[in-house]
Each structure stands twice: as structure tokens, then as C-alpha cells.
Design the sequence.
């Protein structure tokens, strides 16, 4: 995670959102206590203006080839997506953490999951695949690693 912190530090002046409040950190830590990376995630992201930050990727930069306009959710929205909506309910049970809302019109939320080599990856959760209310790999599309998303954001 040292690399992620270094990347965030280099992009700190480009992040135009806000930090998590103490109340939000406590709420997220309590709500997602079963996610093995939640404490580390909150320790890192409580220091950066990430809430409400908009991230954009072209179709070429997005591994799913859809492109991305995502707004980083606040804690309340993250909890609602994870525990009150589909596909969030299904994905949360499989280690995904809701992080973003789609601004392109699809309504498909974005999730973070710790992958190989302790790298956080961003996935799009597909609403239409959640209609059967059963987890399937088809529920998600890999978009980009969090490191690469931050590296590619304009300074």
C-alpha cells in the first residue's frame, strides 16, 4: 500500500472532494467490519479529499471498454448501495466495497476489491445481472486498478 499512498500524495492537490468525517469513518468501520481491508482503507482515505471526486476514463483506458464517469460516494451512499440495493447486496457478501456512482446514466455502481499483490481493483456492478438475486461472476466488470485510476487522473 506504500505505492498507493505515494500516488495519492502526488495527486493530493488534484483531489477536489472532501475527506471522510470521523462519524463516517466510524459508520463505515462498523458497517463493513467483515471486509479484511476496511481499516487500512479508512486509514488511508481519511486523509485525502476523495468524497465527491469525479473520475473519468475513456473507453480505451477502461478494461471493460465502456468508459467511466464515476463520482466517489459518501459513507451514507456506500452503506445504502451495499446493504439496501442490488447488485450491492450480492457483491458486498463477496468482499466488494461500494465506492462510486455512475454519472453516464447506466446507474451501475462501482466497487473496490482487494486483488492479487494487495492491489485494489475497481469493478462495475451490473444492475441487469442482479435480477436473479444470486451472485455470479457476470455481475461485475473489471474497470481498472485504483493505482492506475489515480495515476491517470489529470494533475
Sequence:
Amino acid at each position: 500500500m506504500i505505492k498507493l499512498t505515494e500516488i495519492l500524495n502526488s495527486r493530493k492537490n488534484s483531489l477536489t472532494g472532501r475527506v471522510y468525517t470521523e462519524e463516517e469513518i466510524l459508520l463505515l468501520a462498523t458497517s463493513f467490519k467483515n471486509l479484511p481491508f476496511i481499516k487500512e482503507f479508512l486509514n488511508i482515505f481519511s486523509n485525502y479529499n476523495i468524497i465527491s471526486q469525479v473520475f473519468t476514463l475513456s473507453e480505451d483506458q477502461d478494461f471493460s471498454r465502456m468508459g467511466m464517469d464515476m463520482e466517489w460516494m459518501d459513507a451514507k451512499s456506500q452503506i445504502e448501495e451495499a446493504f439496501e440495493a442490488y447488485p450491492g447486496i450480492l457483491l458486498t457478501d463477496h468482499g466488494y466495497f461500494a465506492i462510486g456512482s455512475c454519472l453516464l446514466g447506466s446507474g451501475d455502481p462501482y466497487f473496490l476489491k482487494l486483488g492479487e499483490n494487495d492491489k485494489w481493483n475497481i469493478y462495475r456492478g451490473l444492475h441487469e445481472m442482479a435480477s436473479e438475486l444470486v451472485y455470479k461472476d457476470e455481475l461485475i466488470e473489471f474497470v481498472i486498478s485504483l493505482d492506475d485510476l489515480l495515476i491517470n487522473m489529470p494533475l
User: Anything to note?
Assistant: The first helix runs from residue 2 to 11. Residues 15 and 49 are 5 Å apart (CA to CA). The chain has a mean pLDDT of 89. Helices lie at 2-11, 22-31, 38-45, 75-84, 88-92, 146-152.
